[in-house]
Design brief:
The chain is α+β, with helices and mostly antiparallel strands. Helix content is 41%, strand content 29%. The chain contains three helices and five strands, in the order H-H-E-E-E-E-E-H. The chain has a three-stranded antiparallel sheet with strand order 1-2-5. A hairpin with a 6-residue loop joins strand 3 (59-62) and strand 4 (69-72).
Length: 92
């Protein structure tokens, strides 16, 4: 599902809201999750899962085109852990 499909589905479920209002709600929702993760926090949605970040150490990588060794800096990457209900629905 892409963002526009989510907005359309919410529009069908909440016909009293305009498309612009729904887009604003979806934008705020995703911005808040991104902001919390950028601050090093964690976001938990009960029944769905938890978003967090994990640290990756610096390492030596390889350019797949040339085979040349390149240095890859340390970084934080997003991580998602599905909740118990989500895992149960996927493994029916």
């Amino acid at each position: 599902m892409i963002r526009s499909e989510l907005v359309q589905l919410l529009g069908k479920d909440y016909p009293d809201l305009s498309t612009r209002e729904i887009e604003k709600i979806v934008t705020v929702f995703f911005d808040e999750i991104s902001g919390r993760l950028a601050d090093g926090g964690r976001v938990e949605l009960r029944g769905f899962g938890a978003f967090s970040t994990r640290a990756r150490d610096a390492r030596a990588g390889r350019n797949p085109r040339t085979g040349e060794t390149v240095d890859v800096d340390a970084k934080r990457v997003p991580y998602f852990k599905p909740g118990k209900e989500m895992r149960a629905r996927l493994n029916v």
